[in-house]
Amino acid sequence: MPRFASIDVGSNAMRLRIVEATSATDVREVFSDRAAVRLGRDVFLTGRLAPAAIAEAVDALRSFRETMRAHNVEVYRAVATSAVRDANNGDLLVERAAREAGVKLEVIEGVEEARLVRSAVMRVMDLSQHRALLVDVGGGSVELTLVTDEKARQSVSLPLGTVRLSEAFLERDVAVSKERSALLTEYVERLLGEARLLTDARVDITVATGGNADAIASIAPAKSAHGASLDVEVMRALKTVLASMSVKDRRERYGLRGDRADVIVPAAYVLTSIADAVGAKEMVTPNVGLKDGLLGELIDRAFRVFDERGEAAAVEAEAIALGQRYRFDEAHALHVAELSTTFFDQLQSLHGLGTEERSWLRLAAIVHDIGDFVGYEAHHKHTYYLVTNSELMGLSPEAKEIVANVARYHRKAFPDLTHPGFRKLDRRGRTAVRKLAAILRIADSFDREHLRKVESADATITGSSVLFRAHGTGDLSLERWTASRKADLFEEVFERDVRVEGAEDVGTFPARPGAGRG
């Protein structure tokens, strides 16, 4: 039976879980481990991972790798969250994890955390009849996701993690003073007040995940039809009691681990404030988290039940929502996306890319003009900035960087290593950007005036050249001329001559070298 593993490199601790599966639904835990490595302590104070913390993390990862090998794990996924994401030397841990521990560590964004936690929750809870708020409390951040009809409608990541708050507001090993309690409360409520997601949440069920939520539920349980839950009013009173105690007293009275006894206090503050914001009397605690979401997707992919189309549609919806935020021409964007993917499919033998790259092209086509919101003349550069500084659920940081680069090169200059955004990509990413941008430039040119006069188009490889043919009504000469001028990157990347013609034409426009840079 195949075995799978997940590694969660969090801000407060690192976790390994190994399971065995005979099917997508028949899963048995084989082994779990936890390493008390608090990466967030120095990051949230100095912005950097401490050398000692990096060394501890690498040692833990090396141990995890040996354990996975001993248990014959076939597939694993290892992710790092807020602490490594925020650290300006986080790439050092990623590099050492690969070189010294043999673990490929992926740094994920807050919205990806939220997506994976949502996946874990929905495997153990039926939310089909609910408007639910999912609250994942981590060491570095808190992820809030509004779910209706089992679909994520909104998601936000806030810097309200328990280690972050503890380091910023609380003194170590002593009770919380009234002054610090008031300051912590004001800070938490201020950040939550800026989360528009909570303003009109109107939820009928609130789900809390994370080790602190589970610990609070064990001390302040609620009787609920939804399973294990915490009672908000009991938690409110517990918060005051916990704050009045030293870390040592909390640990002894409630049987808490040392690295839980300090951060459980800010967790209680955050959860109480969120409950008050949405009027929750209880919070369901299903005892799942990021590591379970990671395993679920690995298993679904292995048994080929993963909803690839559904996930792709969800990411596309995120891209469209981003475009709407910046008042883009949605009809034009979707039309260019259709033309781009048509060309991609028809030129498969030429570019040799796969389904993942196809999705990147489609997303880049959708967002390619959002920079117009800032200014037209350099809108391709503005688009790059807006995409890289936005959250797109389901898209890894690396994939988002590629999408942003493809969109950035839909006009003007070619991809170049003197450009910082392009230079930061690895070899595979740069190759994909060049090929996809070359296709996008031609697709975009076929809707130059945003009038969709070219209703469809196709691409045909003919010997040493590629023929692009436009189909539509009326005079398409301007569109054909523009396409021929913007084919120069395509010719350079694929080393093929480009010809452009209309469906009823007898002549063609040859590409003009260098014309597409203008």
What's the SSE blueprint?
Layout: E1 3-9, E2 14-21, E3 27-35, H1 40-46, H2 51-70, E4 75-80, H3 82-86, H4 90-100, E5 105-107, H5 110-124, E6 131-137, E7 142-148, E8 151-158, H6 162-169, H7 178-193, H8 196-199, E9 205-209, H9 211-219, E10 229-231, H10 232-243, H11 247-254, H12 258-261, H13 264-278, E11 282-284, H14 290-302, H15 308-325, H16 330-346, H17 348-351, H18 355-367, H19 379-388, H20 397-408, H21 420-423, H22 427-445, E12 454-462, E13 465-472, H23 477-485, H24 488-494, E14 497-502, E15 509-510
Parallel strand pairs: 1-4, 4-5, 6-9, 13-14
Antiparallel strand pairs: 1-2, 2-3, 6-7, 7-8, 10-11, 12-13, 14-15
Describe the structure.
This protein starts with a strand and ends in an 8-residue tail after the last strand. It has helices spanning 40-46, 51-70, 82-86, 90-100, 110-124, 162-169, 178-193, 196-199, 211-219, 232-243, 247-254, 258-261, 264-278, 290-302, 308-325, 330-346, 348-351, 355-367, 379-388, 397-408, 420-423, 427-445, 477-485, 488-494; strands at 3-9, 14-21, 27-35, 75-80, 105-107, 131-137, 142-148, 151-158, 205-209, 229-231, 282-284, 454-462, 465-472, 497-502, 509-510. The radius of gyration is 26 Å and the shape is elongated. A five-stranded mixed sheet has the order 3-2-1-4-5, sandwiched between helices. It has a four-stranded mixed sheet with strand order 8-7-6-9, with helices on both faces. A four-stranded mixed sheet has the order 12-13-14-15. The chain has 24 helices and 15 strands. Helix 7 (178-193) crosses helix 13. The protein folds into three domains: 3-109 and 293-302, 2-Layer Sandwich (Nucleotidyltransferase, domain 5); 126-285, Nucleotidyltransferase, domain 5, CATH 3.30.420.150; 308-517, Hypothetical protein af1432 (Orthogonal Bundle). It is α/β, with parallel strands linked by helices and 518 residues long.
